[in-house]
Amino acid sequence: MRPKRMLAAFVLFLALFVLLTLQLYRIALDTSSIYAQAARSQQQIELTLCTRRGFVYDCTGRPLNYRTGQVAALVEPALLADPRQAAVRLASACGMTTAEILPYLEKGQVFGIQLDRAIPETEGIRQIESMGRIATPAALHTVGTLSGTGEGVSGAELAFQQYLGRSGGRIYAAVRKTAAGYPLPGSDVTLVDEDYYLPGGVQLTIHADMQAVVERAAREIASGAIVLLEVGTGRIRALHSLPGYEGDRLADYLDAAGGELLNRTLEPYNIGSIFKILVAAQMIERDEVPAPYTCTGKITVDGRDFYCHNRSGHGTLTFEQAFARSCNTYFIARFGAEQYPPTLALARLLGWDQAGHLAAGLVKKAGNLPQERSASGQLLANTAIGQGALLATPLDLAALVATVAGGGVYRPPVLVEGLVDREGTLLRDMAREETAVEVFSAETAGRLRGMMEAVCREGTGTTAQPEGFAAGGKTASAETGWLLEGEPVVHGTFAGYFPADAPRYALVVLVEGGRSGSVAAAPVFKEIAQGVMALDPP
Question: From CA 512, how far away is CA 525, in angstroms rounded?
Fold first, then answer.
């Protein structure tokens, strides 16, 4: 038995010895690799030719923060036949002069340079396709931008800063270096691609072409906000805030008085007559549609005069006619204390009094709804026509219109589809499938749609009616209580949907100081609706 035990012990020892030898060999290989890398790093220098962060995509997969067509050039002076001619060619495609480029060539060291376009093939100049960062992208306040220090304003660039940083790439030239650490003239140069051309980033619900339609239509608006929502999904197809800013000059706007960095689509505003949609909705829901009323142009409540926009009066109007013509006195006369709480309850179901998070740092501000217990006569009058302390964001108003167009069902607005991996697939779906909320019945929504379509057909919104298809909507002239050069500031808004026969989009146009929704906002609505339907025909 002893020889067998000795043999077993020997075999075990031999096996352990072999395992130990293999482990030491592996460690030696790893160590040699580390040493080899260290040696290479001491012998060569990396010249970065182009670098980028991750992409911010639109809903079709097009980058919003980078453009193609740029060129990165690696210049090897030792291989140039005519340095001066090379300097002329390089200067013609970048922002430098021939005199500024020549000293780089005379040094004889390899260097990289960014070009706006390709130049004729030249020995000693290697060109590769690169991507240029868009400092001021479309949907500026939504995409956002970062300064060279990593600081930025609220937007996808800032909200997903870390992930976009990991989703980028670069192309560099590996060049042997001198003992002093400079590129060695005449040495071999290797171009290395570190994931530069791979996809990756965050995908938004914004549609680049629809965003372009919105921004073109808003060219004459000095200050305001535009929101385009997809009915039935809540996906935001365009967000535009005015005025804008230049992304490469962020510091210049920090103390500016124009509020250029403010995303007005997410800021609360005085509502105006668009609130009449909710007033009408609760009347229909409660089966309390009021009787006709004769408008004389003015109504007095608790000693205060409230005027209609038609100072001479509309005459006798039915419920539908009063809505189409936006008659203030009708709604004031027919809105009572018993209707006040249910109207505010509808607004709460729509989230008007709550903040909404679209992404980190992109927050829809909470609006303001008056307290139910303080329903004085004058407060009731103001509420009936959407004036006073009532506040909601343009995004809130768009969600209201989408709710009417979508059969009375509210779906929270969605801005982010998800994260995109290095293979171009949606790595993590971030589109919130939140539970839809029925704000009012489909029957009520249908009746409201008929009334809103009458606004565009024969009421205050005829200037919003597109050509070739119908729309529904509501005008508003919202008093702010502010004065500018002695004149009251009144915002003009139009909120509507299109096409009327099968609504697909809800659109809100708000013009600060526009005074009249039918004059300042409705024509812009019309232009956008026609442009969007040209992109997405029935």
Answer: 15
